[in-house]
Amino acid sequence: MKQVRFAAAVVGAMVMATACYGAINIKFAHSGSLEHQYNIGAEHFKQLVEEKSGGELTVTIFPQGQLGGERELAEGVRMGTVEIGSLSPSNMTGFVPEFDLFGVPFLFKTPAQVYAVMDGSVGEKLNKIMLDKGFHNLAYWEVGFRNMTNDRQPVKTPEDMKDMKIRVQESKLKMELIKALGAIPTPIPFGELYSALQQKVVDGQENPIATIYSMKFYEVQKYLSLTRHTYEPALVLANPKWFDSLDPKYQQILTDAAKETAVWQRAKLAELDAQRLAEIKVAGVQVEERPDLDAFAKATESIAKLAQETVPADLMEEAKAIAASVTE
């Protein structure tokens, strides 16, 4: 009887071990907080992947830069030490210069324009460019339209930004944009930005409302100007060799889950934006809701020409045409 029980225990242990061994665990890394757009998407993606695969695929999320800043994450994905990472295109221009498309001010005015561009032919062309550089993009999630904050004074026109030190991503276009506004661009890693603002290393920064809220930048900034000067998607990058090694059914699950998450996450962020802006105001931040956008556009019109050095002319024109065709 003891032998039977022992044999049953051994078989049970073997079944459990096989189940554990058979499950494929996926590392999903990003640099945002637990309330950041990246993590909102990652949590939903994890849920969908595990449900769709019946637990055969599991996702472990590494938020808050646990596996490195965005440049390190990009390297990690390309080398295969990280299976999937969510990153901003502006932090990827060193790998994919064509992402300067997202550094052109006022190229997009509405979310509908952005989605038509990213979910259509332009997004597909960028996906092919990324694949050639060692990145398989599963979908375009959202970071959002970027706005200016600072700790010195209200900003209604570019003149109000003169000589302010503004944190920017490590992107030539972003740096030139800030210079065009009369301010001083200062590259600082995203994970160090809160302390840089707190310690007055820089006067301000530019990010979407969702980021300003989730990273708590409003705690160390007095003024917010809703310039919406550029739009930033969130890439969902997988290592191509790892992805291609998966069973096709798992590839489809990951692709479907990423695309479904894009639709869900965009809608979720739209819901949250008004609520978060209200909370930012309650926290004491003075919000300029109607800055002189014509003045900002005029001051930064040279940036589009600069982008021609890295963005193929046909890709730029295609993006403009698609955006112009969306009137809602």
Automatic annotation (TrEMBL):
CDD domains membership: PBP2_TRAP_DctP2_like (cd13676)
InterPro entries noted in UniProt: DctP_fam (IPR018389), TRAP_DctP (IPR004682), TRAP_DctP_sf (IPR038404)
One GO BP: transmembrane transport
GO CC annotations on file: outer membrane-bounded periplasmic space
Entry superkingdom: Bacteria
Keywords: Receptor, Signal, Transport
Residues annotated as signal peptide: 1-22
NCBIfam families in the record: dctP, TRAP_S1
Family the UniProt entry places it in: Belongs to the bacterial solute-binding protein 7 family.
Protein name per UniProt: Tripartite ATP-independent periplasmic transporter solute receptor, DctP family
